[in-house]
Structure formats: structure tokens, C-alpha cells
């Protein structure tokens, strides 16, 4: 069907009638400045003119038509005049705003024709004379809530309606009005959507976009950007958002499955070290157990080794013992022979006078023994006399003199012993005291070095315990002394202030929020110290008034930025406003005072001075933000105490030395007392007596030759006897030694056999091989012998214990790592491990979880992930891709349809316009299409391995995450999504002006830039005409019996040339469209030829109201000519 031959024959179309729904009338009540009555514009389905002076109300009527047809969210009022959205609105039209007046507050507020008690009605009747059908659209506005815009309901009727008949006499009961309308067969709607669906169906308008074009037509003068115009006005919005939602929903399941896979892999990654280390720990435990058992098996193992050595040694000893017994027997025989010879010789000597000589020898021998005893006494006595500084006695009188001095010496030494014992106890006590003080100072220093404050350690430790139990930070419960410091310029008062604030400084400050917990903890805990704490309110009020400038409170700094600052200031000024007095007279005058010496004067004439410690003893100081000075003092004190300890230890050593020397002297005195007579030490008398007897023996022996021979023989025999006795003794000793050795070895073997026999069979199978295997390492390849077996067993035991200790430490460290890994796993997966403790006892449970994940969990998650990826997501991506391709093809097809319409329009003599399309250069869209294609590449023949699945997932995720909106980029991603899924944005459009005869291009347009005003409007009318035909379904396969034939052009001819205006009007006339032209008076002569009806709008500037008059174009022309004649006559006269 040709674009210019649109009067197609339809069944039921009346002969000679114009097809399509056209505006028969428009009625408004209380709309803008049309006030107080129903105003009707009646074009009667014909092309009409709505005219009047600028500001008379023409656009108000056009906006009424727009309100009836266009969705509220899209309505742009007075669009042709480029008014802002704030100037006109439903509220301004319903209230009838016409200006502004000054409010009582001095601000401007709208001046209106109507209050909120009035209602407004818009009504338009469209008629299709060919089908003899009428459709009335109406909207009713009223106020339900003064704080909200007007409420409205919508009406569609298959008949003609009137405001005066159908929207009146309802006594302001809107529900009654709706009921009445429904009962009359009228359809009433509460929302625009259903209302628009119904009237669009009746008008044959399939696309909602057609109504957008209707509004766009009102103000369109030129095509600024052809691509944007075609996208917005000539192409239907593709329905791709639903597909995107499906993708997002499918991806939610896929992403959950992917997260399950990643979670399982991460769990396996965390559990593997636990299992591997657990297995290693088990092996180390087994080795440790083996070492434990080997330690127990070491003695039996060595016993078995020893038994074998003893067997060989016993056999050797038994052979040696036989030989030793024979040698002893020979020595005994020889000994008896010598003894017989001695006896015979002694008989011979006696027979020759030897009896007297023997008696003399016996006497001399006895005297020698007595002399040996006296010599020992003499040496002992000389040693003791030397210690007591006494001379050795030479006579009995000297001996008696020494003995008389011994009682006094003993008494003196006993007295000295008592004094030395007392001195020793005192020195020991001082040493213990100094050592205890040193330990206390060292502990205090250790504590002070770990912090900055000077509070005593026992208070710090108690607070630490409190905070640990209540899970609080120590900084939340400060001691007052930690927040106070004597100002540097007031250093001279530091000792006195420390003494005054000592107890307060040790007080703990407890915020209100922690008070209940702290109070309960203190009440139920045995503290071991005196603790004072204050409940500090968060709303502490500052103290009013100014303190004395020399008050203690003003000589202190409060730690900056502490939340306790106000409270501390108040407490200091209330409790420690003592004036620091330089002189005694001032001290006497002030009611609260303190001196630098530390004397404190309190209320009630109470005076106090505590000198138990020196006032400058920094060890007692507790105030300050830094404890460096206190550390230095304590370090010096520590050195003094160490020096004191060294002194007392030297003193103790000296006392013990004196005690030893005194005891030795006391013992010497007692020993000397034991020697009772001088004869006991008189060696010279006995020596003289022995010499006399020896001289007599020699005389007797020299008196007989036979006797001398016999005595010489006896001497030889006695020598032989001694020698033989030595031989016999050695032989007996050797035999005894061997017998003892044999007995000992036998006992050793019995014990070794017994020990070895106690060995369990399993021990020989496990521990013995272990001991044999490690023997070389443990014993450094030393050979086990009977002599070395004990030492080597000890060495082997030491090696085992050392290795066991090393292994125990390694096991402990490994268990620590395992438990730490378990804790980390539990922290990350609290739900799965709610009933599993991080302990070695739980290792089987962790191994079970790992086994379950590897054998079932991960494979199942991977299977579901791949299934969802391939069967759902990638398939859905492919469907989405197909949908976009379908939309592409649809757009190309629709452009061809529109080109069919454009080809029927003579744009210029011999030329026509053709729309051309090309792919967009937009980087976002191009990248999106590449990404989308990549998602489905290899989908049919793709690998099933994990890497392929992960790659595809990441490709899909990159797109879906932008569809969903990434964190922090939600708005930009929403804009990106809207752009890339709208297939219209995939195209760029241009207009090609071509010769009909040759189809060669005459000119190429991407917009109307660089063209004259008339050319711009001409291109706009051409493109607009084709768009209207397409959207209203007036041509080709989309033509329908019902059609909408009404178009409004508002002020479109204000700047256009007469030629362009005639071109446009001719074009719309050929399209058989009803035009409502809204234009000022000056353009009427150009368009009068095309107009059948005129609506003339006039505005009363006094009453601020608009009025409407309906006349034919002929009547308008007659009145216009009459006005021109009257003006001419007026000028002539």
C-alpha cells in the first residue's frame, strides 16, 4: 500500500468517510486559567487551528490533550515553549496558578484561581466516521490530602460524553460519581496503565512508543540527531530486560554453586595440611612410643648382650682358677718346709744360750711400741699448742702451766662462738632483706619498663586480671595517677603533691557503662590489695568558680584527650584545693594548705605530716604520664641493694671463717686437756731407755760364734719365710680373686639371664631391632664389652632420652601448628565445626571432613556447577544472544518498512529520503558483544575440564556482575546495562537523499546541522511523517481498521518558512491525518488554506482567566478582514 494512498477499504467503512479516530471535541473544567465553567474546543475531526495571543492559554489546552493521552511520568507540559517542569504541573493546572503574591513571611507563593475544594475534569471525544464509532477519554482530579498532589481517576467510554451531564451533580462524593459512571457502562480506572491499554487497543495503537511520538511531535521543529530520533521515536523498545532478569536469576544459582566449589576447595586446602601434619604427628608419636618402649627394653637388650659376654668370660675364669689353685698348693708345701727349718734352728739357738737374748729383744720391741704412741701424742700436742699460741713444755712444770691456761681459753672461745653466731644471723637477715627488696625492685622495674605510668605493679596486675576477665581494654579503666602530672615548672612541689594525692592517684576510674560488671567482679574476687574505684558518669558537670591560683589542683596537668578530663578537674578542685604555702604565716591563715615539706592542713584544723618515707623518694611517686624518672631512681636503688648484698655476703664469709678458726682452737684446747701427764709426751726418756737395752743385746750376741752362726741362719730362713709368705699370699689372693670374680660373674649372668628372660616376645620383634639398628649411632660405633657395658648402656639411654626430648619438642610444635590450623579452619567455617573442638583428639573428625569433601562434597559441587553452567547459564546466554539477534533483525526489518513509507514521499523534485543503518562505534557495546560471544564459544564441543568451566564462569560473571551492579558502581553499571541490552543502541542511523531515477545518493544526513531553518523543518516533517505512519500502523502489513489519525503541532510554524509550512501541511494532508495546529496569529494566512475550524483563545488580564471561541475558518477570515478594514479606517480618520 502506498504511503499516500491510505484510504484502504475495510469492512464496515462508510462510503466517503475519513478513516481513523479523530478529535471531535475537547472539554475542560477548572483547568489552568480556564475557570468556572466547561470550555469546549470542537474541531469536529477536521484539521483545525488553535490560536490566540502569546500567553492566552493555547498550550494549556494542548497540555490537557497530552495529559489525557501520555503517561503521567512522561508528560512534559508546555514543551513547545521549552518551559521547565517546575513552571507547570498537575497541581498548577488544577489550582489555576496565574502569578505570585507575597506571603506574610515575605516569600513568594503562587496565586491561584481555585482552592482545594474544587475539582477539575478533562474530556476528549474521538470519532471514526468510517466505522461510526466514538471513544471518550476523561480524567477527573480532586484533592484527598492537602499535603499531596491531586488524586485522579481515568475514564474510557465507547460513546460520546459531556462534563455537564456525566461529571456533575454528585455532591462532591467521588465514590458515588465512580459508581454512577460504572453503572452507565463506562470503564473507570485507578491507574494509567490499564487505562492506556484499553484506549490504545480501541485506537489500534499497538506500541506505547506511539504516544511518546505524539508528545514529541508537538514541539519538534528539526531532527537534531537522527540516530537518537530514530532510536527514540521510530523503534520499539526491545524487551530484553526480562531476559536479563532470567540470566541474573540463573547466575545466582550458578554463583552459589561456584562459591560452593571454591569453598570446598578452600576447605580441602586448609584441611590437607591438618591431615598431612596429623599423619606426620602420628608417625612421630609412634616413633616416640617406640623410643619409650625401647628405653624400657634397653636393660633387657643389654642384659642379653651381657649374658653372652659373661658366658665366655666365666669359661675363661674357670680355667684360670684351676691353674691358680695348683700354684697355691705348691706355695703351701714350700711354706711348710721353711717353717720346719726355722723351728729346728730356733731349738739349736736356745740350746746355745739364746733364751735370755730373746727375752731382751721382746722387752726392746715393747718399749719401741710405747715410744711410737708417745711420739704421736707429742705431735698432736705440738699442733694444738701452735693453734693456741702456747710453747711446747720441756719439763713437768711447763706442762702444768700450759694445762692451767686451757679452761680460760675454752671459755673465751665459747663466748666468741656465741657472738659470731649472732653476727651471722644478723648478716643473713640483712642479706635476705636486701635480696627480697632487690627482687621487688626488679619486678617493679620490669613492670614499669612495659608501660609509661608509675602505678605500683600489684595494682597494674590486678587491673590486668579484671580487664582480662571482663574482656575490656586496660585503657578503659585508668588509675587517676595515670592521667595526672605535676607541671614541670612546679617541680619543687612534686614531693608534697605526690604525698597529698597518693591514695587518690591509686584510685581506678570506672565509666558508667562498665560499672555494673566491675562492681560484681570486685565483690566476688579476693583482691589481696586495697582497691578504691570511682563510678564516673558520662555527663559530669564542670565545677563553677575559680580556684586559688596557688592551689594544688592548678599545679597539675590532666592528660590531653582523656574522656575523664571534666570529672578529674571537678574532683581536683573539690578535694585538693589546698594552697601551696611558701611561708608558715600563710600556712596558718589558709583553711586548706600544704608546705613543700609535706605538712598538710585540712578542714577542721586537722594537720598531718607523714615522714615514714622521704618526701623526695621517687620510688613512692605514682603520678605522671611518663615513669622514666621513677625507673632511673629504682635502677639506682637496685644497684645500691646489689652492693649491699655483696657486702653482707662478704661479711658472712668472714664470720664463718672466724667461726671455723674459733672452733679449731676450742677443739685444740679439748684435745690438750685429754693429755693428762707430761710422761705422755716425754719422748726423750723412752728413747734413752731403749738405747740402753739395745747396747746390752749387742754385748750378748757378740759373746758366742755358734750362736752368731745360728742366728745368721735363722735370719736367712725368716727372710725366705717372708718371701714365701708373699708368694703364698699372692697365690691365695689370685685364687680368691678368681673365685670372687667367678662368683660375681656367675651372679651377673644369673641376673642378666633373669632380666633377659623377662622380655616379652613382642619386644624382641619391635624394640630389639630398633635398638640394634640405632646402636652404631647411639654408641658411636663403640664395641660393647664387660668393662664398657654399663657406661655404654648409660650412653645409649642418654641418647634415647635426648632423641625422645627432641622428638617431644617437635611433636609439641607440630601439634601447636595443627591446632592453630584447626582454629583457623573453625573460625572460617564456624557452622560446619560448631561441635568440633580444635584439639588433637578431634583429628579423626577433621580427616573425616577432608575425606568427605574429596570423595563426595567437591565432586558433587563441581558436577552441579558444571551442570548449571552448561545446561542453564550458558544456554540462557545463548538464548539471550538469540533474543538480541532477533531484535537486531526486527530493527533492520522495521527500517526497511519505514523506508518503504519514505520512498513514497517526494522529499524534493525527483528525490526521496532513505534511512540507513550501521553498527555503532560505542566501545562499551562492542566490548559487550565480544564478551557475550566468548561466553558461548565452544559450548557445544567445549572441554569438560575444570579450567574450561572456570574460564566460562568468569566470562559469564564479568557480564552478570555488571547487570547486577558492582559495589560502589551500581549507578554506572545500571547505565551500562541499559545501554548495551537496548539493541537500538547497537545501530547508528543516517538519512540518504537519493535520486529516484538512478537511486544515486544526492546528500547524506546524520542530523540537520548546517541546514537552513526551512531545510531542517522539511527533514523533520519527512522523518516525522514516516514515524507516524509506522507507529500508528497506517501502511503496509501493519495497517489496521482502527487507527489513530490525530496529531498536534504546537507553535511549529513560529520560525518556519512559508514554503516549509506548506510542505508539511501538504504532507500531513496526503497522509490523511487530522492536524491541530497551535500557532500565534501571524502565521494564519500561510496555513488558512488547510484549516477547517478555528479555536480562538483570549486571556482577560484583569480577571486572569482564559476564554475559548469556536468558529469556522471562513468566519475567522471574514472577521479578520473586517478588523483590518476597521484599523485602516481608524488610521485614515
UniProtKB/TrEMBL annotation:
Keyword list, A-Z: Coiled coil
Q: Which InterPro entries match?
A: P-loop_NTPase (IPR027417)
Instruction: Give one Pfam family.
Output: SbcC_Walker_B
Positions the record marks as coiled coil are: 324-377, 631-734
Highest taxon of the source? Bacteria
Q: What is the protein name for this chain?
A: Putative cytoplasmic protein
What organism is listed for this UniProt entry?
Acetonema longum DSM 6540
Q: What is the lineage of its organism?
A: Bacteria, Bacillati, Bacillota, Negativicutes, Acetonemataceae
Amino acid at each position: 500500500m502506498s504511503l499516500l494512498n491510505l484510504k484502504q477499504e475495510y469492512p464496515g467503512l462508510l462510503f466517503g468517510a475519513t478513516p481513523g479516530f479523530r478529535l471531535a471535541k475537547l472539554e475542560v473544567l477548572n483547568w489552568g486559567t480556564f475557570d468556572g465553567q466547561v470550555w469546549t474546543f470542537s474541531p469536529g475531526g477536521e484539521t483545525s487551528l488553535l490560536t490566540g495571543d502569546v500567553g492566552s492559554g493555547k498550550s494549556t489546552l494542548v497540555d490537557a490533550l497530552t495529559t489525557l493521552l501520555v503517561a503521567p511520568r512522561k508528560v512534559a507540559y508546555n514543551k513547545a515553549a521549552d518551559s521547565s517542569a517546575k513552571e507547570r504541573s498537575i497541581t498548577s493546572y488544577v489550582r489555576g496558578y496565574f502569578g505570585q503574591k507575597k506571603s506574610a513571611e515575605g516569600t513568594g507563593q503562587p496565586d491561584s484561581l481555585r482552592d482545594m475544594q474544587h475539582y477539575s475534569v478533562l474530556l476528549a471525544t474521538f470519532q471514526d466516521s468510517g466505522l461510526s464509532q466514538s471513544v471518550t477519554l476523561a480524567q477527573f482530579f480532586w484533592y484527598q490530602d492537602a499535603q499531596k498532589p491531586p488524586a485522579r481517576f481515568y475514564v474510557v467510554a465507547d460513546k460520546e460524553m459531556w462534563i455537564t451531564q456525566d461529571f456533575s451533580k454528585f455532591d462532591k462524593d467521588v465514590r458515588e460519581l465512580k459508581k454512577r459512571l460504572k453503572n452507565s457502562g463506562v470503564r473507570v480506572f485507578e491507574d494509567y496503565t490499564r487505562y492506556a491499554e484499553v484506549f490504545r487497543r480501541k485506537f489500534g495503537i499497538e506500541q506505547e512508543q506511539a504516544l511518546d511520538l505524539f508528545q514529541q511531535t508537538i514541539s519538534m521543529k528539526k531532527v537534531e540527531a537522527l540516530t537518537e530520533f530514530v532510536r527514540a521515536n521510530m523503534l520499539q523498545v526491545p524487551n530484553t530486560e526480562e531476559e536479563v532478569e532470567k540470566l541474573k536469576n540463573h547466575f545466582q544459582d550458578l554463583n552459589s554453586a561456584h562459591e560452593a566449589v571454591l569453598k570446598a576447595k578452600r576447605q580441602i586446602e586448609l584441611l590437607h595440611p591438618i591431615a598431612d601434619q596429623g599423619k606426620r604427628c602420628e608417625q612421630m608419636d609412634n616413633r616416640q612410643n617406640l623410643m619409650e618402649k625401647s628405653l624400657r627394653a634397653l636393660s633387657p637388650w643389654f642384659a642379653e648382650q651381657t649374658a653372652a659376654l659373661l658366658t665366655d668370660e666365666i669359661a675363661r675364669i674357670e680355667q684360670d682358677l684351676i691353674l691358680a689353685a695348683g700354684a697355691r698348693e705348691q706355695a703351701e708345701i714350700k711354706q711348710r718346709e721353711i717353717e720346719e727349718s726355722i723351728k729346728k734352728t730356733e731349738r739349736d739357738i736356745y740350746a746355745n744360750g739364746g733364751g735370755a737374748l730373746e727375752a731382751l729383744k721382746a722387752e726392746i720391741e715393747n718399749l719401741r711400741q710405747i715410744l711410737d704412741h708417745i711420739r704421736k701424742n707429742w705431735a698432736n700436742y705440738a699442733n694444738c699448742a701452735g693453734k693456741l699460741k702456747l710453747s711446747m713444755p720441756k719439763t713437768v712444770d711447763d706442762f702444768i702451766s700450759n694445762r692451767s691456761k686451757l679452761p680460760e681459753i675454752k671459755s673465751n672461745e665459747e663466748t666468741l662462738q656465741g657472738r659470731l653466731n649472732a653476727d651471722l644471723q644478723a648478716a643473713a637477715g640483712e642479706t635476705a632483706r636486701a635480696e627480697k627488696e632487690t627482687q621487688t625492685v626488679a619486678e617493679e622495674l620490669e613492670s614499669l619498663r612495659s608501660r609509661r605510668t608509675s602505678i605500683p605493679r600489684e595494682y597494674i596486675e590486678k587491673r590486668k586480671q579484671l580487664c582480662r576477665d571482663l574482656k575490656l581494654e586496660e585503657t578503659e579503666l585508668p588509675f587517676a595517677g595515670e592521667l595526672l602530672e605535676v607541671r614541670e615548672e612546679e617541680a619543687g612541689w612534686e614531693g608534697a603533691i605526690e604525698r597529698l594525692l597518693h591514695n587518690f592517684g591509686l584510685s581506678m576510674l570506672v565509666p558508667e557503662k562498665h560499672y555494673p560488671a566491675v562492681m560484681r567482679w570486685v565483690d566476688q574476687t579476693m583482691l589481696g590489695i586495697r582497691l578504691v574505684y570511682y563510678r564516673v558518669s558520662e555527663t559530669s558537670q564542670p565545677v563553677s568558680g575559680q580556684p586559688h591560683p596557688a592551689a594544688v589542683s592548678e599545679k597539675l596537668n590532666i592528660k590531653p584527650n582523656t574522656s575523664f578530663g571534666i570529672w578529674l578537674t571537678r574532683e581536683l578542685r573539690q578535694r585538693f584545693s589546698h594552697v601551696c604555702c611558701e611561708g608558715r604565716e600563710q600556712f596558718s591563715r589558709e583553711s586548706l594548705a600544704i608546705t613543700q615539706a609535706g605538712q598538710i592542713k585540712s578542714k577542721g584544723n586537722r594537720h598531718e605530716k607523714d615522714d615514714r618515707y622521704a618526701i623526695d623518694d621517687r620510688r613512692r611517686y605514682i603520678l605522671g604520664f611518663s615513669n622514666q624518672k621513677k625507673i632511673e631512681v629504682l635502677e639506682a636503688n637496685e644497684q645500691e641493694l646489689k652492693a649491699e648484698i655483696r657486702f653482707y655476703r662478704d661479711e658472712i664469709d668472714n664470720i664463718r671463717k672466724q667461726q671455723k678458726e674459733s672452733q679449731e682452737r676450742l677443739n685444740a684446747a679439748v684435745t690438750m686437756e685429754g693429755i693428762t701427764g707430761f710422761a705422755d709426751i716425754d719422748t726423750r726418756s723412752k728413747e734413752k731407755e731403749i738405747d740402753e737395752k739395745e747396747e746390752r743385746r749387742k754385748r750378748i750376741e757378740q759373746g758366742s760364734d755358734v750362736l752368731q752362726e745360728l742366728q745368721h741362719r735363722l735370719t736367712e730362713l725368716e727372710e725366705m719365710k717372708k718371701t714365701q709368705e708373699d708368694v703364698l699370699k699372692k697365690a691365695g689372693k689370685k685364687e680368691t680373686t678368681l673365685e670372687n670374680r667367678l662368683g660375681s660373674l656367675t651372679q651377673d649372668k644369673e641376673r642378666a639371664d633373669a632380666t633377659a628372660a623377662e622380655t616379652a616376645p613382642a619386644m624382641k620383634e619391635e624394640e630389639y631391632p630398633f635398638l640394634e639398628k640405632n646402636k652404631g649411632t647411639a654408641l658411636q660405633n663403640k664395641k660393647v664389652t664387660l668393662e664398657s657395658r654399663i657406661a655404654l648402656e648409660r650412653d645409649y639411654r642418654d641418647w634415647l632420652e635426648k632423641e625422645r626430648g627432641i622428638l617431644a619438642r617437635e611433636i609439641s610444635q607440630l601439634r601447636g601448628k595443627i591446632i592453630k590450623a584447626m582454629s583457623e579452619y573453625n573460625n572460617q567455617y564456624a557452622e560446619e565445626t560448631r561441635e568440633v573442638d580444635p584439639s588433637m583428639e578431634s583429628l579423626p573428625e577433621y580427616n573425616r571432613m577432608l575425606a568427605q569433601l574429596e570423595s563426595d562434597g567437591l565432586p558433587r559441587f563441581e558436577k552441579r556447577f558444571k551442570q548449571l553452567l552448561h545446561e542453564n547459564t550458558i544456554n540462557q546466554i545463548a538464548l539471550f544472544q538469540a533474543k538480541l539477534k532477533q531484535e537486531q533483525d526486527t530493527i533492520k526489518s522495521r527500517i526497511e518498512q519505514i523506508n518503504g513509507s519514505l520512498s513514497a514521499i517526494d522529499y524534493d523534485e525527483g528525490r526521496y529520503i532513505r534511512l540507513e543503518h550501521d553498527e555503532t562505534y560505542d566501545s562499551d557495546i562492542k566490548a559487550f558483544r565480544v564478551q557475550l560471544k566468548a561466553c558461548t564459544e565452544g559450548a557445544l564441543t567445549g572441554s569438560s575440564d575444570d579450567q574450561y568451566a572456570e574460564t566460562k564462569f568468569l566470562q559469564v560473571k564479568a557480564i552478570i556482575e555488571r547487570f547486577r551492579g558492582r559495589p560502589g558502581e551500581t549507578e554506572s553499571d545500571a547505565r551500562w546495562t541499559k545501554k548495551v541490552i537496548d539493541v537500538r543502541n547497537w545501530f547508528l542511523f543516517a538519512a540518504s537523499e537519493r535520486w529516484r531515477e538512478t537511486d544515486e545518493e544526492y546528500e547524506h544526513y546524520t542530523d540537520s546541522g548546517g541546514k537552513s531553518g526551512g531545510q531542517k523543518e522539511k527533514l523533520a516533517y519527512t522523518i516525522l511523517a514516516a514515524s507516524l505512519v509506522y507507529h500508528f500502523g497506517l501502511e503496509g502489513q501493519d495497517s489496521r481498521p482502527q487507527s489513530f489519525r490525530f496529531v498536534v503541532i504546537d507553535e511549529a510554524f513560529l520560525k518556519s518558512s512559508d514554503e516549509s509550512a506548506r510542505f508539511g501541511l501538504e504532507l500531513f494532508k496526503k497522509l490523511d491525518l487530522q492536524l491541530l495546529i497551535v500557532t500565534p496569529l501571524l502565521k494564519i494566512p500561510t496555513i488558512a488554506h488547510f484549516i477547517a475550524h478555528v479555536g480562538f483563545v483570549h486571556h482577560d488580564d484583569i480577571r486572569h482567566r482564559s476564554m475559548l471561541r469556536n468558529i469556522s475558518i471562513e468566519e475567522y477570515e471574514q472577521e479578520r478582514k473586517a478588523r483590518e478594514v476597521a484599523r485602516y479606517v481608524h488610521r485614515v480618520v
